[in-house]
Each structure stands twice: as structure tokens, then as C-alpha cells.
Amino acid sequence: MSVQRGVRLRARLLLLVAVLFGAVSPALAASGGARGERREFKILMDSRKIGYETYTRVLDARKGIERIEAQGSAFIAGRQLRSRQTLIMEAGTLRLQEYRLKVSVMGVEQKICICGVDDKVHFEVRVAGQEKRASPPTPEGLVVLDNLVVQSLRDPARRYDWKKGGLQAFHAAVPQVMQIIPLTARAVAAPRGRYRGKDLALRQLRVTVAGLVVNVLASPEVPGQLLAVEVPLQKIEFRRDGIQVVVAETSAAAGGFEERELALKNGEITLGGTLTLPDPRPSEEHALPAVVLVHGSGPNDRDETLGPNKPFRDLAHGLARHGIAVYRYDKRTFAAREALDTATLTLEDETISDAVVALGRVRDQKEIDPGRVYLAGHSLGGLAAPWIAQRDPQVAGIILLAGANLPLDEMILEQTGFLARRRGVAESAREEIETMRESFRRLRAGELPPDEVIMGAGVRYWQDILARDPLAALAKVSKPVLVLAGDKDYQVGPRHYERWLEACRAAKNDRCRGRLFTGLNHLFMPVTGESDGTEYQLPSRVAPEVIEHMAAWILSGGGRP
Questions:
Q1: What are 35-88's pLDDT values in tens digits?
Q2: Is 60 part of the annotated catalytic residue set?
Q3: Which H or E element spans position 367?
Q4: Which of 522, 531, 532, 549 is catalytic?
Q5: pTM
Q6: Is 279 a catalytic residue?
């Protein structure tokens, strides 16, 4: 259910990319170039320029040091951010000697220092008059990762053995959590590029740290080597002036469907939506079956975009090629968040009401058979699906795509612990997890004030969703049900899948079917090894067998595929 986006530890680490972007600049200086050389990088979000970063690199041969001074400015989430940084390393060996960063956000300053390195890194972090210190042991080949991007933009690319290739390991000092954590890098296929009008051979390094993927583009043909950096999950790019990157097209191939805008009006709020139709249709008179897609948790757009992936778009295009119309729409927490009151929002307001209106909107379209309109809910949308079906007795059937049915607070605590262990930050996460556990305990005990916000949601929302029993709600649904899940889903695992089927059997719903797909994650995309959400940041597609299974079930009228 994209719950990881709400996990506070994860969110804190990822937000550093945006909030402490200024720390990027030390990484932008590479080993080549003259004394005092100056370079500039543009900062882009969703392909729009939001700021800049400039730095000056000085190689002091007499002192045997490499010194980088940098400053930057950007406008992010309505806030003006300014920064200054200094990085000092031994020339040649790149051994860290000192690092300092000062970030100002609307007049509030944060100061960070790695003040001297011997057998230990000495962290000092000062925020709002408070100071914290730590001195963990220092491994060889240490890089600074002030915002989980900084040295991944430079040092691994310089230290990486390109001839050897494959996965190579490093260590990163992260001042915000005052820890040293693992970092891995792997050379991957690079896109084409041009620099100052000339074709360029690029190298691409994919760096992963604490679950964050960063793509680094460099070229030995350019002084300084570093040219561009992409953080897919944050849709942030750092691009050197003069570089053009030609990325291969990743959208669905044309043909087999057509699309048109179809807005969804519910009360005072109008949401954008897209109706995808088969093209060509069997005939103008042929009425089409249709499915309405309902999002997982968080502020999702109509494609349920996560990093470079768009699972709802994949489903819409794939099902349309099988002769099924698909409607997907922007979630109101994405498209109309300013009009919502966190203190009063419930699952009904956030998800259920819009989905019920969407089902009726699709039935009203001339191309659609009103008796064959299905509902497909992903993750939290799957949890809500039984109540949506109860509210709309005309729905032809429901599809639960990795639908959740266990208490959400338990799921979040379990996921947070798993991710912390998986990413090597279990120690720093312990306090975060205990704080979350206590917040949930107080929530269930009714001890929290009504205006309290937990992980972006108000007390009323949590009370509403924790009071719901999706299995009992499903027992009241007599329509056909299709339960789908991936066996490598770490967020809504196979246990949820089994519980849905057990609830169907207990309710004696003989039109309930299920399939557990091998090797697929929470987005129903293939994953090698264990899933931990890192793969969400890499381009992929919903597996064809999922689309084929859904299509066969819908076209058979909710019978056995």
C-alpha cells in the first residue's frame, strides 16, 4: 500500500535529498581541473528548474589537500533553501579530513560538521540550539553522504573499478543519523548524451544506500567527469550546464487503445481522470466491460506513480488491449489536498466516496456495458473495496490487488523494522520505532488529542481505519471476488492473501478465486532476490501474466479464468 512512504525513518532519510540539497555540491567537484575552477549544476524537480548549485575546487599541492567550497539556492515545497559547504580531503587518496555544511530554511539554520578524522569519524550536528555528537569507528574507503546523495555523486564513481564491474561495496558517513552505513554501486547501461553540442560516451553508476537509488552519469571525456545525477523516487535531477541526456522512451507502445480525459466530480471537488478504451473496438454497438482502479495509501496520481513506475497506467493499457475499458483518476489527497481537513478526514472521505462516484461515472459512458463494471483496489484500495462494493450494489465484481486486511499500525511497525534491518540502519531506527509504537498505543487507548497528526494522518482517520474489519466486510459481499498477490510482496505479504480466501470460504462465496504470483512484488512487478522497495525506483512494468489473468476473469464474467 506504499506504506513505506509514510514511515518516518524512511521519510526523514528521503526528505534530506530535498531539504539538504546543498550538500550535493562537494560531490560535484571531481579530481580533474585547474586551481580555483568553478562549475554550476541546475537542480530540477519534475523536469522544472528549481535552483542551482555552484562550487569552486582548489588543489593545494603544498598542503597536499583538495578543498571544495560551494553554495546553492533552491525553492522546494514553498520554501527557500540556501546552503554553504566546505569539504577538505587528502589530495590523491581522497581521505576525508573535514566536512562542514550550513543550511538555512526560511531563517532557520542547521549546522553539520565532521570535525577531524583519525580512527573514528567525529560527528557534530547543531539544530535549533541543540547539539549532538558521536564518534563511530571508521572503515577504509569512507565517503560522506550528508543527504544520501552527496558522495554518491562523486566518490563511488571515482573509486569504482570500472574494469572489474559488478556490485562493489563502500561505506558512507551520514551526519544526520550520525552513523556509518553500507553503500553499494553497480555499473549499468548508460543513456546517450551530448555535452556542449558534441556526442559523448557516458558511464552510469547506480548507487544504493539505505534503500535510496541514485543514478550517476559521468564521462572520462569531460574535465571533472560528473555530468548529471537522478534520484528517481524524488523526481530530482542535478544536471551540469551544457549536458543533454537522451533517455530511451519507457511509455507503453502506441496502438491497441485510445484514451480521453474524463473528470470526476464529487461534491465541490473535481478530480482529473482518464478513460482508456480498446482501439479498435469490435463494433460501435458493442458495449465494453470496464474496471475502475482504486489507489493505495498516500497522495497518488491516476497512474499510481512511484518513482519511474506507473502500475495503474500499465494495467489500463494492458487491459484495454484485451478489450476492457479502464478508468483511473487522481486521488483527492493528490489533486485537492489544500481543500482537505486532516483533522476530520476519514477513509470514506479519502477513498470510498470517490470510488463509488467513479463507478457511476463509468456506467454513464456510451461505450460501457453498465452491468459489467468491475472494481479493482490496490493495497489500501483493496482494503476499502468491500465497503465500496456494499455502497454500490451494481458493481459486477471486485479485484483485490495486494489488498491489506491486517491492522495498519501493526503493518507499519513490522515494515519499518524490516526495512531498517535490511538497510543497515537498525540502531538509529530503534528510537524511531519505539516512538511510533508509543504513538499507536496512545491512539488505541484514546489518549491523543484530536488535532494530533501521525505520519501525515489525523487521529480521526486512524481511529476510523483501525476500527474497520475488511474480512467481515468482505463476508457481506456476494459478488464475484478475485484475490491477487505477489509472493515477494514485503508490504502486504502472502498472509493477507490467505486471509482473504479464508474469509470467502467462511462466507460460502463460491465465486471467489485467487492467485499468488511467483517472483512479483507489491506493484506486481518482477523482482530478483528479496523485495525491500528499492526496486520501486528502477523502471519496470506490471507483469503480463497479471494483466492476462485479470482480463480472463473479467471477460468470463467473474468466473474461473
A1: 456 677 788 876 778 887 777 778 888 888 888 787 878 876 667 778 787 878
A2: no
A3: none
A4: 522
A5: 0.71
A6: no
